[in-house]
Structures are given as structure tokens and as C-alpha cells.
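Board notes, transcribed. Complex of a protein with 1-deoxynojirimycin.
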Amino acid sequence: MINEVVVPKNAEFASFRWWERGIIYQIYPRSFMDSNGDGIGDLSGIRSKLDYLQWLGVDAIWISPIYPSPMADFGYDVSNYTDIDPIFGTLAEFAALLADVHARDIKLLLDYVPNHTSDHHPWFVESRSSRRSAKRDWYIWRDPAPDGGPPNNWRANFGGGAWEWDERTGQYYYHAFLKEQPDLNWRNPEVQRAMLDVLRFWLERGVDGFRVDVMHHLAKDTEFRDNPANADFKPGMSPYRELLATYTADLPEVQEIVAMMRGVVEEYDDRMLVGEIYLPVERLMAYYGASGKGAHLPFNFQLIRLPWKAEEIAAAVERYEALLPSYAWPNWVLGNHDKSRIATRAGPAQAGVAAMLLLTLRGTPTMYYGDEIGMRDVPIPIDRVQDPFEKNVPGLGLGRDPVRTPMQWSAGHGAGFTRGVPWLPLGVDYATNNVALLKDNPKSILSLYHRLIELRRSELALSVGEYAPLPAGEDLIAYMRNAGERRLLIVLNFGSQERRFNISELEAQASLLLSTYLDREHEKLGAELELRSDEGVIVELR
Ligand code: NOJ
């Protein structure tokens, strides 16, 4: 049974754009649902799970890359931007998926990978064929340093130097990630035209926007100066971080490129851009663009990057809110395909608190598939490692396979994900932690996500209301979300001890709307709100 979509009937709500009031759900396509038994998820698989996504109540899905790719970086090495990899399906299957998604009033975002192509992309094949190739300047080629070595000290994100020697033409090319991912030269107008046309290709087909891969990397120093040492580097960190990315990321020219992308998206109605940007929040703000003509949402990764401590998170939320320019809409991300899952980072007991935080903060929430059933990082035996990051820089815990394991749909064969052999191992807990079982359990994390989303969709205060922080004691975060007369109080206990929160000062009658334990609805509250360990609550004040 599909629930009716709950939308607050209020004119104010309608004045917000879908990407402001909605919830984004990230699908890692290799691991969501496999329809053909090859052990790898595909578009038809996603299509078969739209009932579930509609039941869950998300407003938009973002699908990580599905384009033809040699899969050196599992799709982030694109060899053709305007087709679908046969592993995932066909353009016709994509059209069918998009039509079904739209029929459910859900939006679809694609992943746009503008910084680099695959080394198999015909552009790069041509570029590397000769120094006189018409596409030579589409990539970043440099002569060796006087000693014959690489032109400078730039490093690759996935280990080793960023320059790859090309024997045939006697020059190095630059790659910010794998050597199989040569960086495009966005200073070249032909590259700009070709890559902006890629956006148009998909916009014409009806996609609602893009998540833009490593947006801050798009321009590099024209003088190719050495990057300086990072004084904060400590052993155990990724070797890439030994240097600061001063001359390889977040250059002022990036903003011009972002503005071009925004210009293209604005040729169409109601479409949007989300930028993947790992920068301090102060710098993140620039990506909204001067006067808001940059990315609609520069991803805010603070909930992923900060230690799971009430004080630090509360301070970060306030700081972020204070830094936002007047035209900027906030957003929050709890997980993605590159970082440890929330139920592992914060611990399973805090997963519900994290869900409540994500879905009650002001700003567009982005959820990562499987977090709604409390999936955890899955340890990967060495002989099953797939991620090139782990292969290049082993043993530091940088590998991303643990967070990309198959969605756990049921206790059946292959966790209901595949009838074949899954490309990554299944979580050992799949027999008890799966959609089928948790959906039927009214106290499960999945039921909590469902309730929270339902509430967010029906409460203007939660989706688009104002945010006001409140002082709170140890281990607690408290804030109000208000819309007109409607006042909702959120209090979250990040600790494993019981805590109290004084509500008498709020001078209102308080009744509990939702607890992360899913057992206190409609409870009338006195002067003190009692919170159990790891409990979060939403309280209605009248
Ligand atoms: C960021 C993506 O999220 C990650 O998965 C990918 O490996 C790199 N960009 C390179 O495209």
C-alpha cells in the first residue's frame, strides 16, 4: 500500500522550490537493486523499488554515475557522457525510469563528472595521440621538469603523484584522482562548450538537475606552482593531505565555471545543481555564487566530518546558519558513498538521533541509501577489495567499499538485492537488518525514518520554518522550528545517560509529537522534559 503523499496545504510552502522543501536520497546504482542477476545493481532494479522510495517519502533521488565507463573508479571515470553503461541498462531504460519517477512526483538528479574523463574517453585518446592533436589542449599536458621528473609536486587524491608520463608524446598529463581519470582543461572554450552540452543533453531528456562531482577542483594554477606543505598533517592521514591544495583546488576561476553551469541549468524550468565541495564552511559559501547564481546547494558535509558530539555539532549548526548569505538555502548531508556510514561513525544507538537531526534541521536533507535501515560499514576481506583508493593506499581505512555494500532488502538469497553473487560482500546482519523486516516493526529505525519524513512533509515548521537554537545542557542539542503560530521544539540526547531539559522557560503547553523510541506520542509534558539515553524528541508547544 502506498501512502498518500502528505503536503502541507499552505501558500507559503508552495513559494519554496522543490529542492528547498524536499528530501534528497542518494542511490549508489551498483548496490541498490540488481534486476538481471549479474550481482551489480541496475536501472531496472531501481525502477522496481520506486514503490519503496515513494512509501519512504523522499522527494528526489540522486543516482551516482551510470554512464559508459571502464569502472576504474566505478563510474567516476566516464568514457561517454551521453549514454548509459550496459551494466546499468540503456537510454530507453533510463527514459522509462525517469518517466516512472516523475509519475510519482519524485525528481531525479544525475551525477555530472566535469573535472575528469576516463582515459578511454575518445577525447583523451585523441588528445594523447600527438602533441599536434586538435584535442591536445583539452587536457592538462606539461613538459617534464629539467631533471626529467614531473613538472611539480602536485599529488593525486588516490595516492601517488598527480602527473602521468606519456612515453609516446614525451609529456606528462595531470590527474587529480586516478591516472585513469585525466583532468579536463576547463580553460579551453571548446571543453566548456562540449561539457555544457552534456548538461543540455540530459536536461532535454527531463532530468531535474545534477550533483556536480568535485566542483572545487575545476581550475588549476596557470603557473603550476608547487603546493605548500600542510602543517596539520599527521601520520595515518591520506598521503594526499601532506600538501595543501592551494594551487589545485578552490581557485577563483572555479566560480566562473560554476556560473556557466548555472546559466545552462537556468535555460530550463525548475532544475538545480548540487555541488560536491569538501572545503571549510567559510569557503563553501562562495559556491552559492555572488548574488546566488552559483550552485543551488553546495553540499554541507559537516555532519559527516565532525566528531559525533553534541557541543561540536551544535556549534557547527549555528556557525553555518550565521555564515549563510541571505539568498542561500541551507542543506545537510548525513552519509554518502565515500565516507563511513552514520550507524558506524555515531554508533547504532545514535542512528535515530542522527535521523531526527537531519530531518528537523533547516535546509535540504540528503540521505544515503541504507542509512534508513541502519546499515553499517561492512568489513571487506583483502581478496574482495574493489575500491582503487584502498588498493593504492592500503591499510589506512580510506577504502570506500565498506559503505557501498548491497542494499539489504530481505533475509532471502543475496539479501533480496541479487539472485546472483553480489559484487561486494553483504553485511553480516542482513538477515535481521533488512527492509522487509524493519518495515513491519513499528519501533525500527526504518519506521522512525518513515515517521520523521511524514512529519517533515506535513509540518511547514520543519520543512521551511525558521530555526532558532536554544541553550541546552551536557550531551544535548535543542532548537526551535517555527512557522507562524506553529512552534516545534527539538531536543536531542547525544549521550548514553538520561538527561533533562527545562521547558518551563518556554512558557507553553508542551506535548510530545515524536520520540526516536517511537513510544511517547501525544505525551503531555510538565516543566521538565526527560530524555532517555540516545533519545531525540519533537515537541509541540502551544
Ligand atoms: C568524488 C566522488 O564522490 C568519488 O566517489 C570519486 O571517486 C571522486 N570524486 C572522483 O571522481
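The chain has a mean pLDDT of 97. The pocket of 1-deoxynojirimycin is lined by residues 73, 76, 113, 177, 213-214, 276, 337-338 (CB under 6 Å).
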